Amino acid sequence: MPVPVATTSPSPPPLAPPPAPSRRSALRTLPRHPVSVAALAAVCAVGVGIVLVVAAGADPATAWQALDEGMFGSAYAVGSSLNSAAVLALIATGFTVAHRAGLVNVGGEGQLCAGGVAAAAAGLALPAAVPAALGIPVVLVAGFVAGALWAGIAAWLKARRGTSEVITTLLLNFVGTGLVAVAVHEQALLRQPVTSAETLPQSAPLPAGAQLPLIGGPESPATAVVVIAAVVVVATGIALKHTSVGVKLAAVGHTPAAAARLGLPVRRLEGGGLAFAGGLAGVAGAALVATAPYVLAEHFSSGYGFSGLVVGLLARGSLTAVAAASLLFGFLTSGGINLQLAAQVPASTVQIVQSVLVLFIAAAMLFTTRRTRSTP
After folding, report:
1. Are the beta carbons of 284 and 232 closer than 8 angstroms?
2. pTM of the complete model
3. Mean pLDDT score of the chain
4. What does the angle CA 242 – CA 248 – CA 249 come to, to the nearest 5 degrees?
């Protein structure tokens, strides 16, 4: 009887390494790169701006020269642009922290107003000869605390009642702007003493010791808020990336239910992130009050809260992008003022270009995300 012989099946050939990406495939992925998306959106936004300038009856070359002079033409222009960029960076940094915890803070305008009112009240309560080493911290801390408490209202409603922070922070914006109007119109609150019918409805100037010092020389209006914003952006970026708090915020923002199962205090982290965002917006409001003309006036916020929200959305969680977008928007805002004065082009043209830039980038990001998910 023949003995069956065990046969071994031939071993499969070793797997070959994946082929290197060809130049054609690299060119296909290039249009989906974030840098390419941003560059293409910027070109399209500039094209829209040129159309608006021509429609206003101005020469594009003259308008560009006026815009360039408004942004970089003098020390005053650069300093003013840096101040605007610093305020936007503070608000956008706070937005990024709240967004890391899974929350969307759209109340930067109201928190900025609350910080400005508190800073003005604290500064005017100081003696006239207060030293800067005491007056400036008091004003900034008052702004931070007021902004954090203002955002804390939305955080409490979110934690206790489950109310959407988007709705509450948005509605609190109108309350904050109304608070400023009441404070500067009522003599029992912060309005300066009325000496004639021409007295403006605003607060009295802050004492010299509560005013932010200049850092760019006598010809530049750049103040210490530029340094403060730079330190805040760098410190926040390091904290979010290299500390346990940043990891916990990311875990809560990614999956709150899983974070709760791991024992993380979800409500405390969400509330703390939103309160920190409000505190930075309050510091931005305090900085506006502590910058020339050193008074709290109606509409002093100038829409910085909403512009900071846009910067935070564009940054998509990156503090480096926060700094870059803040500088871009700050210089464009300063240049738009000179655009209206020198080229007779409405300053709102710059705001339209900024809005179009945001829309193009958002649409491009949505398109590239869908294309990436559909690609096997």
Report:
1. no
2. 0.84
3. 85
4. 95
CB 145 within 8 A of CB 83: no
Residues 6+ apart with CB under 8 A from 158: 103, 164, 165, 168, 270, 271, 274
Under DSSP, is residue 219 helix (H, G, I), strand (E, B) or coil?
Answer: coil
At 337, the pLDDT band (50, 70, 90 cuts) reads confident
Structural tokens at position 87: 């305020």
DSSP three-state, residue 274:
helix
The SS3 assignment for 292 reads coil
State how far the Cα of 75 lies from the Cα of 222, in Å rounded to an integer: 9
State the pLDDT at residue 368. 56
Closest CA to 137 of 26, 224, 230: 224
Angle 369-375-376 from CA coordinates, rounded to 5°: 135
Percent of the chain with pLDDT over 70: 86
DSSP secondary structure, 114-136, as one string: HHHHHHHHHHHHS-TT--HHHHH
Angle at 346 between CA 342 and CA 352, to 5 degrees: 130
Q: Check residue 27 and give its pLDDT.
A: 45
Each residue's pLDDT tens digit, 264-288: 999 999 999 999 999 999 999 999 9
Residue whose pair of structure tokens reads 């911290």 in the numeric block: 137
- Phi-psi domain of 206 (left: phi exceeds 0; alpha: psi -120 through 50; beta: other): beta
DSSP label of 216: S
Q: How far apart are CA 157 and CA 170, in angstroms?
A: 13
